[in-house]
Automatic annotation (TrEMBL):
Name of the featured protein: Dihydrofolate synthase/folylpolyglutamate synthase
This protein's pathway: Cofactor biosynthesis; tetrahydrofolylpolyglutamate biosynthesis; Cofactor biosynthesis; tetrahydrofolate biosynthesis; 7,8-dihydrofolate from 2-amino-4-hydroxy-6-hydroxymethyl-7,8-dihydropteridine diphosphate and 4-aminobenzoate: step 2/2
Matching InterPro entries: Folylpolyglutamate_synth, Folylpolyglutamate_synth_CS, Mur-like_cat_sf, Mur_ligase_C, Mur_ligase_C_dom_sf
Gene3D superfamilies xref list: Mur ligase, C-terminal domain (3.90.190.20), Mur-like, catalytic domain (3.40.1190.10)
Top-rank lineage group of the source organism: Bacteria
C-alpha cells in the first residue's frame, strides 16, 4: 500500500458513513485552517447529474488555450487520487498531496468527518496556497449540502442536466433532486443552465428568482449544434463557427455549447481562436474513450473497436446509446459492471433499439458493493439481451474477440473504467 493510500484509508475511518450530506463538520475544520475557501481564485461552481466533468474539461481547455492557469477539482478519480486535484494545470504531486493530507488530518484531531469532506478541505488548502487564474469546482453530490458549497461569491455557476441519480440521498424525483442542485446558486453570481427536464426547470427558476439571478437557458438563450461536421454556436452576441469537439458523441456538442455559453456569460478572457483550440485538444478520460492500444486492447483482433465509458445512470446511458447509434453499424458487445446502487435494467433500456447487442457482465473488482456478474446477466436476459457472465475483464474481452468485427463497449461504472485503464496501462491524465 502506498503512503497516499495509507493516509486515505485512515481518513476514510473517521466517520461511520461514507456519505453524510452536511457542512457542519467541515466548516470548523476550514476555520482552523484559516478558511482557505475564502482565498481562492475566481471560481466557477458546477453541479448537475451528468456532464459536469465534460463541461469542466471544455472550460479548462478554453482557458488554457487562452494562456490561463487553471485549478480543477473533480471526483471520483479513476486510477490515482491525484487526479481529483489539478493545480495551475498540473495534477498535484504525490509528496505535496501527502503533506497536505497529513496536515489536515492533524488539524482535524480525529474528529468525525467523511472522506469527501476531509479531502475537499485538503483541496481547498492546496488551491488557496497555489497561484492560479481560475478554479473549476465540481460538486460531489447534490448542491446545497455538498462539501464544495462553501464558496460565498463564485464568479459563476453552471447546472448541467438534472436527472434521476443518488435518489437515496437527494430525493426520489427529478424535482426533489433539482432542489438540491439549485443550492449552488448565489446572489450576484451569473448562472448558466444546461438542457433540463420539465420537472427540473420550474424548481431552478424559483431558486434563481429568490436570489435575483437571471440564468441563461440552453436551447433558449443560446444554441449549439452540429452542422456539416462543425459546431455552430449562437447567443445574443452573435454566431460562431467552430471545429467539432474532440470528445466523441452527439451529446458533446451540447456539453461544449454549455461551456461556451458560460465562457461568454461569465466574461472569461477567451476569444474565438482559444475556443477553437480548446475544442480540438479537450480530453476527458473514460467518456466514450477509444482504447487503441494497451494490454487489454491487445486481446482483441485488429478489426475490433474498443471503447470505454464510465456512465452509470439512465441519462448517461441514453447519451452513450446515441453516440453508438451515430456510428456505422457493427455488432455491439456491452461489457458491463455496475454498483448495486444502480439498476442494470434501467441502464440497458437505452440500448433496446441497438439489438442485437450482447451483454457480457462483470463483477467490478475490489468493490464489495458491486452487482455480481450473474445478477447483471440475469437482468439483461430478462430484458431480452443475449447475456452471459465473465470472471474478469480479460475473459470478457476474449469472449468478445470471438464475435466478428465487433464494437466492444466497456460501461456501467467509473470504478470499472478506472480498473480497465489501470490494467490496460492507460494514464487517465
Amino acid at each position: 500500500m502506498s503512503r497516499t493510500d495509507a493516509i486515505l484509508k485512515r481518513l476514510s475511518q473517521l466517520h461511520p458513513k461514507l456519505i453524510d450530506l452536511s457542512l457542519d463538520r467541515m466548516l470548523p475544520l476550514l476555520a482552523r485552517l484559516g478558511n482557505p475557501q475564502d482565498h481562492l481564485p475566481p471560481t466557477i461552481h458546477v453541479a448537475g447529474t451528468n456532464a459536469k466533468g465534460s463541461t469542466i474539461a471544455y472550460l479548462r481547455a478554453f482557458l488554457e488555450a487562452a494562456g490561463k492557469r487553471v485549478h480543477v477539482y473533480n471526483s471520483p478519480h479513476l486510477v490515482r487520487f491525484n487526479e481529483r486535484i489539478r493545480l495551475a494545470g498540473e495534477l498535484v504531486g504525490t509528496r505535496r498531496l501527502n503533506a497536505a493530507l497529513e496536515l489536515v488530518e492533524a488539524v482535524n484531531h480525529g474528529d468525525p468527518i467523511t472522506f469527501f469532506e476531509v479531502t475537499t478541505v485538503t483541496a481547498f488548502k492546496l488551491f488557496a496556497e497555489t497561484p492560479a487564474d481560475y478554479l473549476l469546482l465540481e460538486t460531489g453530490m447534490g448542491g446545497t449540502y455538498d462539501t464544495t458549497n462553501v464558496i460565498s461569491h463564485p464568479l459563476g455557476t453552471i447546472i448541467t442536466p438534472i436527472d434521476l441519480d443518488h435518489q437515496g440521498f437527494l430525493g426520489n424525483s427529478v424535482a426533489e433532486i433539482a432542489v438540491s442542485k439549485a443550492g449552488i446558486l448565489k446572489a450576484g453570481a451569473p448562472a448558466v443552465m444546461g438542457i433540463q427536464r420539465d420537472e427540473a426547470r420550474p424548481v431552478l427558476e424559483r431558486a434563481a428568482r429568490r436570489l435575483g439571478v437571471t440564468p441563461l437557458w440552453q436551447n433558449e438563450d443560446f444554441h449549439g449544434s452540429e452542422q456539416d461536421g462543425r459546431l455552430v454556436f449562437q447567443d445574443e452576441s452573435g454566431l460562431i463557427d467552430l471545429p467539432p469537439p474532440a470528445l466523441p458523441g452527439p451529446h458533446q456538442f451540447d456539453n461544449a455549447a454549455l461551456a461556451i455559453a458560460a465562457t461568454r456569460h461569465f466574461g472569461l478572457p477567451v476569444d474565438a481562436a482559444a475556443l477553437a483550440e480548446g475544442l480540438r485538444r479537450v480530453t476527458w478520460p473514460a467518456r466514450m474513450q477509444p482504447l487503441r492500444e494497451g494490454k487489454l486492447r491487445a486481446l482483441l483482433p485488429p478489426g475490433h473497436e474498443l471503447w470505454l465509458d464510465g456512465g452509470h445512470n439512465p441519462h448517461g446511458a441514453a447519451a452513450l446509446a446515441r453516440a453508438i447509434a451515430a456510428m456505422p453499424p457493427r455488432p455491439l458487445v456491452l461489457i458491463m459492471g455496475m454498483m448495486n446502487t444502480r439498476a442494470p435494467e434501467d441502464f440497458l433500456e437505452a440500448f433496446r433499439d441497438l439489438h442485437p447487442a450482447q451483454v457480457i457482465a462483470l463483477t467490478i473488482p475490489g468493490e464489495e458493493n458491486a452487482h455480481k456478474a450473474e445478477d447483471i446477466a440475469a437482468r439483461a436476459r430478462a430484458q431480452r439481451f443475449p447475456a452471459r457472465a465473465a470472471r474478469s475483464i480479460t475473459s470478457a474481452l476474449r469472449a468478445a474477440a470471438e464475435i466478428e468485427n465487433a464494437r466492444v463497449l466497456i460501461c456501467g461504472s467509473l470504478y470499472l473504467a478506472g480498473d480497465v485503464l489501470a490494467k490496460n496501462g492507460t494514464r487517465p491524465d
